[in-house]
Amino acid sequence: MDEYLPETERISEILPRLNDSLFIPCLQRDYCWNQNQIKMLWDSLLRGLPLGSLLIWDDEGEGPRREPAYSFLQHYVDSRAFSFEDEGHIRRYSQRYDFGDIPESYSLVLDGQQRLTSFFLSLTGTFTTRRHGGWVKNRGAWNQRKLYFDLLSGDQSGEHDRDLVYEFRFRKSGGLSESGDRYWFAVSRLVDDSGELTTDSFLEKDAFLDETIPEVQESVDSAEHERVESNLKRLWWGVNRREAILCERTLTDEKTARELFIRRNKAGKMLSGVDILLALLTGYWKKIDEDGGPTDAKKQIEQFTESLSRDDDLTESGFTFGKNFVLRTLLLFSGERPAFRANGRYDGDDLREAETIFYDDQFEQALRDAFELSSEFGFHNGALSSKNVVAPISQYQYETDTSTSASGSAIRYWLATTVLNGVFGNIGTERVLKTARGHIEESDSGRFPATEILDDLRGSGAVVQLNSEVLDELLEEVDYRSGARRNVLLTHLYQNRRAGHKEYEVDHIFPRGKLGDEAFLREMGVEPERIDWFKDNRDHIANLQLLTPKENQSKSDRDLTDWLERIDDEKVESIPDKGEYFEQHRVPEDPDLHEYQNYPEFVERRLDLVRNRLETKLPLKETL
User: Fold this and answer.
1) How far apart are CA 579 and CA 531, in angstroms?
2) Which residue ranges does the record assign to the GmrSD restriction endonucleases C-terminal domain (predicted)?
3) How many Cα atoms within 13 Å fall on the side-chain side of residue 501?
């Protein structure tokens, strides 16, 4: 890796190189500075404060360069909701260049993009924001503004109460304010209006001052003439004479450049492994869009996840999808490590293979089929510890292109075992997915290799089977706070009710609050030495049932005996009689067990009823 001695450059020297021979690499995050950060940058420039350094990755000069290059934004809008076709020059995101549109040799900014973009749009472009409460489809709700400098600011006495000495603001127009205490001057006047930014575009000092000083002094009080002249000179000096930007340059290979970028940016907003992977995919994918330009992979993946999340069947099961799951699944299918690498050391060929898979219609179909099948088996969104549990099923469907009907029992066993035992959390997502991938790629049995995968994970410190013995342990361990595991058990307890789904709510048969109320329990005849047991076991799986929202509202925190009386009195529309309630919810019929002092016996008896039901409904290994 070759290094150069750092050099200082003026803003007027480096800005003309933007989008000409100096570009943004695919790894860089989107432009994200707000207007206050830009104002502070300009204040620092005029005060002579440090602006930080740039790190530029130069071309090694061995043939045409092929690292993806993105544009610096000139007209920026801070919301993706801006969508007016006749104003396509106003952008939220940088655009990727086709290699035919840029020089064969060019440099990329590894650190400093935010500052360079801020100076670029301040001097030559605009910053657009949406008015608070404005309708996104109304163009009038969007304020497109240029940066202006208050020529009457500059109090360096230290007595002002503002963070900034020199005041800047994004405005529609300039001139003297109505109060007469501010004069707003467009910083873009430092540059001529030729439309193309070159080193010759920046006005010479005499020409700039001769044009602006008389104009401004004519509008302000004579007492401010000296301040106006001083500020105009300082503004010109900051852009044209101050060697404000320290440039470090490097010649290195692609993977080391990524690592340099990540290390340099640790002091700022950290990029996650997902951010890094998305940026690299965006840079390396080759598909051409309708306009003949390179497709933005990040945008494509976001649209893909939105499409999945809008699917009626998947939405009915409560599924929503994010880019993390789609990206990890692409890594899994392409043979890569199914993990997000913080060092960005991915191979470009692997990233291009992921593109081939992503645009294969079978990829999306495999995901849809796998999640629909999981939901049919009772594993809707609330009954999955992670969507990664479904990824191997998707890969099996994608790799084999066969019906999953022959694998129904094996897939149900995989889902139940991994979720109830917390296999992914206890062993680690990457290891489980890699193990599953190996068996899926080697499988020729015509069915999903659930037992083979789980057997291979033995010895990892986690339970990897589901049988009667494991079920007994789960019934003692899982309670109201157990999330997906609770939802799996309760869902399989019923014929057509799903725990964790919006249509049903988890209710405590004996009200939770009353089981934790010592005074109430004493009043109900509970012996003092048993009260702690009542408190500790109020969330027991045997005290939980699934009710519709309307049923739950009717029951509220009523005692079980009062609830049963309401059913007898036909005040619960959806439950015709107590017999059906007992049968549907597996609640013991013995009225003595419905009294608080007999709650331990109720738990024991209902646990037997729950266990008997789950032994027939869950895919225990003995039944495979």
Assistant:
1) 31
2) 469-560
3) 23
Q: CB neighbours (10 Å) of residue 125?
A: 20
Q: What does the DSSP assignment read for 287-311?
A: -B-TTSSBP-HHHHHHHHHHHHHH-
Rounded to 10 deg, the angle between the 205-217 and 225-240 helix axes is 150
Give the range of the structural domain holding residue 568, as residue numbers without chain letter: 488-618
- My answer on whether 153 and 287 are in the same domain is no
User: Domain check: are 221 and 320 in the same one?
Assistant: no
Which of 2-16, 134-148, 376-390, 580-594 has the least mean pLDDT? 2-16
What is the mean predicted confidence (pLDDT) over 12-27?
A: 92
Pair 136, 25 in one domain:
yes
pLDDT range class, residue 251, cuts 50, 70, 90: confident
SS3 assignment, position 79: coil
The answer to whether the CB of 601 falls within 8 A of the CB of 590 is no
Q: Do 148 and 100 form a contact (C-beta atoms < 8 A)?
A: no
Helix (H) / strand (E) element for 176: namely strand 175-176
Count of structural domains within the chain: 3
Q: With H, G, I as helix, E, B as strand and everything else as coil, classify residue 229.
A: helix
In whole angstroms, give the CA distance from residue 607 to residue 624: 24
pLDDT at position 4 is 60
Which amino acid makes up residue 238?
G
Distance separating alpha carbons of residues 311 and 24, to the nearest angstrom: 36
pLDDT digits (tens, 9 = 90+) for 483-507: 999 999 999 999 999 999 889 999 9
Looking at the predicted structure, is the pLDDT value of residue 309 above 80? Answer: yes
Q: Are residues 185 and 95 in the same domain?
A: yes
Please give the Cα distance from 609 to 602 (Å, whole number). 11
pTM beyond 0.85, yes or no: no
> Contact, 108 vs 25, CB < 8 A?
yes
What is the pLDDT, as a whole number, of residue 267?
Answer: 54
Tell me the three state secondary structure of residue 49. Answer: coil
Give a yes or no: residue 388 inside a domain. Answer: yes
Do 495 and 459 share a domain, yes or no? no
Average pLDDT score, the chain: 89
> Based on the number of CB atoms within 10 Å of its own CB, is 504 exposed (0-12), middle (13-18) or buried (19 or more)?
buried
- Diameter of the chain measured on Cα atoms: 100
- Report residue 156's pLDDT band, with 50, 70 and 90 as the boundaries: low
Give the pair of three-digit tokens for residue 578: 């107590």
Q: Using H for helix, E for strand and C for coil, what is the string for 378-421?
A: CCCHHHCCCHHHHHHHHHHHHHHCCCCHHHHHHHHHHHHHHHHC
With 0-12 / 13-18 / 19 or more C-beta atoms within 10 angstroms meaning exposed / middle / buried, residue 109 is: buried
Tell me the pairing of strands 75-77 and 126-130. parallel
Nearest-10 crossing angle of helices 429-442, 323-334:
40
> Do the Cβ atoms of 143 and 133 come closer than 8 Å?
no
Asked if the model's pLDDT at residue 292 lies above 50, the reply is no
